[in-house]
Specification:
By secondary structure, this protein is mostly helical. It is built from three helices and no strands.
């Protein structure tokens, strides 16, 4: 059990180093007026709204991680 745990820990540690070496993704900012217009248009496109909500969560994560 202990050797398996140590092996898993070693693998996870090496993964963390690779992830932290990646550059932060670009996050494009949009003017508030454009965001408001898009929000109104999304009422007619619920699937698109769901996709954009997911992308918004990714953007928030990237901002928190990359600063």
């Amino acid at each position: 059990m202990l050797p398996a745990l140590l092996s898993a820990l070693a693998l996870l540690t090496s993964c963390a180093a690779v992830v932290s070496d990646r550059p932060c993704p670009r996050v494009t900012e949009f003017p508030a007026a454009l965001q408001a217009k898009a929000a109104l248009e999304l009422d007619a496109a619920p699937a698109l709204k769901q996709m954009l909500d997911g992308m918004g969560a990714d953007r928030a994560f990237n901002r928190a991680v990359c600063g």
